Amino acid sequence: MNVKPNIGIINALIRITCGLTVLAWSTSKLVKHPWRDSYLFMALMGAMKVGEGILRYCPLTDVCERMQDKNDGDGNQNKTNNILPYNPS
Asked: What's the gap between Cα 31 and its chain centre?
C-alpha cells in the first residue's frame, strides 16, 4: 500500500484542530459518564481525524480518487460524445 499525502496543508490543520476539539470534548464527557459508548466512539473518531491531519493522508479521499480514475478510464466519456443531437428535419 502506497501511502502518500493526498490532502493539503490547510485541510490537515483543520482536521487536527477539529479532531483535538472532538477528542477533548468526548474525553471530558467520558470521565463523567464512563458507561456511554457514544463518547468512546467520538473519541476514536476525533483521534482518527488528528492522525489524518498529521499524516496528511485520508483513506476515504484516496478511495474516491481511485474510483474517479477508474471511471475515467472506462471510456464512458466517449460514448456520450458519440450521441448525435435530435434533428427532426
From this structure: 29
Q: Which residue has the higher pLDDT, 5 or 87?
A: 5
| pTM given for the model | 0.73
Taking the CA atoms of 58, 61, 67 and 71 in sequence, report the sign of the dihedral they define.
negative
| 7: pLDDT strictly greater than 80 | yes
Residue 52's contacts (CB-CB under 8 Å, 6 or more residues apart) are: 7, 12, 15, 19, 58
DSSP-derived secondary structure letter, 3: -
Residue entry with cell 435530435: 86
- Separation CA 35–CA 13 (nearest Å): 32
